[in-house]
Amino acid sequence: MEFRISPASGLPIYQQLVEQVRSGVARGKLAADEKLPSVRELSQSLVINPNTVARAYTELERDGVLYTRPGMGVFVAAKSAPLTKKVRRERLLPLVDQLLVEAVEMGCSLAELSKLISERSTVFEWNGTSEPSNASGGKRK
Amino acid sequence: MEFRISPASGLPIYQQLVEQVRSGVARGKLAADEKLPSVRELSQSLVINPNTVARAYTELERDGVLYTRPGMGVFVAAKSAPLTKKVRRERLLPLVDQLLVEAVEMGCSLAELSKLISERSTVFEWNGTSEPSNASGGKRK
Amino acid sequence: MEFRISPASGLPIYQQLVEQVRSGVARGKLAADEKLPSVRELSQSLVINPNTVARAYTELERDGVLYTRPGMGVFVAAKSAPLTKKVRRERLLPLVDQLLVEAVEMGCSLAELSKLISERSTVFEWNGTSEPSNASGGKRK
Amino acid sequence: MEFRISPASGLPIYQQLVEQVRSGVARGKLAADEKLPSVRELSQSLVINPNTVARAYTELERDGVLYTRPGMGVFVAAKSAPLTKKVRRERLLPLVDQLLVEAVEMGCSLAELSKLISERSTVFEWNGTSEPSNASGGKRK
DNA sequence: GTGGTCTAGACCACA
DNA sequence: GTGGTCTAGACCACC
Q: Of A37, A58, A76, which residue sits at a domain end?
């Protein structure tokens, strides 16, 4: 998997990396136990400081997304046990609300938003009840 | 409308204010041309630095959410002309993707996410043509 | 509250700080919303690099022990909602086992260990069923 | 006795081995003068570097847990003379405190912790004079 | 070779 | 004044 950073994005570099790894895992582009590029390697190819890469990796490890094999490198962790439904709701709510506020603000209709979500959702690796709802689509054949 | 700030949220205070105003407008709690509390009033009632309030208002004015009538105060702007569909997509995409990544990461099914969005969407003031789709709910009459 | 670091301890400096803050909170020496020494302040008094202090604070913030008020400093967070009993068990088990292994290894009797635990437990701020068991004592009058 | 290593544990491999041997001895799964697998055998069965196994054995020998009979292999040492009570206290204290801090931090009550310790303690081979106290259980006959 | 820790010093955002 | 980010470069532990 390739990593890219855009200095103009406003987001700190290490966070851009964090997001890309998370996103890669969620999309199935990064499989469990797959090795990530080494800190030195990635820092050279992106022309950034090794510490910056290390920070991203460290943060991802603390969140259980990656794990380190001392002396060997950094690897993708297996998916951990899913959280409670209640906890999921709590954590997702602010993101959902933020999205809805933005959508309403720019005059987007609910149907349009649903369609957008539906389109994007096909790229991800959903688990659980794989029956995609009509609303947000999913790759129904 | 009441404003609240939570010191422990981590977000800069001025951003908390910005978010609350935007959210208030999107939810219809703040009507067009409604007057907002003055910088001095708000800074006193929240016990924060007036500069902080001013910064929030400035930013909101720059984005066309508020307008200032010199000597009279700050007011809620009427909704500006909706952006083109393409621009909406571009701006919404990162938020949608972020939401989907988080949802997948915590083992949420697509159906569960759709239901959550559907529930929250009833609070907002959607515009445009769309009858809210069955899927994502909305306040059907 | 005073902080101390011992270079000979083997533990990284930032972890020593992390432990001391956690311990201070658990002992009630650090009250909720109390301000901690600033990064620069603490780094000067301990004669260590500001980054090292910052790292400790950052880690504690990610764990919900501290929170940052941008521009104002770092503060002690209020206790968050307690975890499930099951989760508590899971997290405590390795520590308990490690303790028991060490104790057995050095020829400590179970009674002696219990007494030691009992003694130390009086310093902490327990919550929940405050009825201290005979085994581990507590400050019964 | 079987050895297992988990690459994702974060702990260096040689330490995982050290811990397992120590734990095995404390639990009575490894008897005095029992022979351990050779460096070569173990490194092959675990698919790890022989140096890593050697390091673990060396460390355990240094601590008097194992002894080497040149040409014959590595064996479990008999329990050495117990340390003085004072030394035991000094070495156990940090572990005890760490455990208590964690327990308090996650809202565990003292009774709950005592119960947990009591349960786990039955697996170990306690020595010394002590009838296990009622409080912390142990395998009463 | 791998990552982890620490130092030094710069620059920016927030209040 | 506060903390947050990034760079540069050093040293150590692990395999």
A: A76
